[in-house]
Amino acid sequence: MILAALVLPPGRFHPPRPRRLLEFLAQDVARQRPPYHSDLDVIGCVSRLGVRLAGLGGWKGRCAMKGLTNRHMIDQAKAVLRPRKLSGDNTAGDVACALLSSSGNLYFGVCIDIVSGIGFCAEHSAIAAMVTAGESGIAKIVAVWGDGVVLPPCGRCREFIYQLDSANLSNTQVILGESRAVKLKELLPHPYAEVWRVDPA
Q1: What's the confidence (pLDDT) of residue 3?
Q2: Cβ neighbours of residue 137 under 8 Å, at least 6 residues apart?
Q3: φ, ψ for residue 59 (rounded to 5)?
Q4: Domain-wise residue ranges, the chain
Q5: Is the whole model's pTM more than 0.85, yes or no?
Q6: What is the β-pairing status of strands 60-63 and 4-7?
Q7: Nearest-angstrom CA–CA distance, 137 and 145
Q8: 78 — phi, psi (to 5°)?
Q9: 108 and 60 in contact (C-beta within 8 Å)?
Q10: Do residues 96 and 110 make contact, with C-beta atoms less than 8 angstroms apart?
Q11: CB atoms inside a 10 Å sphere around CB 20
């Protein structure tokens, strides 16, 4: 059985009845390319459905997905990878991020590149959605670019993940490929707080 929940903006949408949710799911699955290798592929459709209904900026599709593999995390990030041009020379969506929180909720984000340097990484976007929902612990995180090239987080993102919740240093798995993931502490052996001997927690 597939269990899923959609978090929708109050006053704009009403959570669909179970039968209606299954109808939405069936329509979404029909638009995806077969074959489906597991229930997680179908759950991913529910997550994307939540994103489309509620809007990517500030709301999310949420599912209990603690068992997501690296491959599934990469595919979830690719699902929201939509490069687009903004005004002027500004762009967005060239990099997408999927983040699995410690409690098993999945969040998404994309980068925004602004010529004045005030844009932000896809990881920051996904983390902002997670914090908005009241969470700070990260179990897994991955960022993808182009045709699904997995990117390691930049130094700013690594420190950001740690400063957000010091437990992330030991608990967060940073996905570097389908068959490779490392703990954040391997990518950030000397966090900034170490210099001042201060634990951000």
Answers
A1: 37
A2: 101, 102, 103, 165, 167, 168, 171
A3: -130, 170
A4: 1-64, 65-201
A5: no
A6: antiparallel
A7: 24
A8: -60, -30
A9: yes
A10: yes
A11: 11
Q: What is the pLDDT along the chain (201 residues), one digit of tens a residue?
A: 333 333 434 444 344 444 454 454 455 544 544 443 444 444 444 444 433 333 343 334 444 456 799 999 999 999 999 999 999 999 999 999 999 999 999 999 999 999 988 999 999 999 999 999 999 999 999 999 998 999 999 999 999 999 999 999 999 999 999 999 999 999 999 998 887 776 665
The full length of the chain comes to 201
Q: Which amino acid is at 74?
A: I
Domain covering 65-201 assigned CATH 3.40.140.10 in the classification: yes
47 CB-near residues (< 8 Å, 6+ apart): 4, 61, 62, 63, 65, 76, 79, 106
- Is the Cα dihedral 84, 28, 109, 142 positive or negative? negative
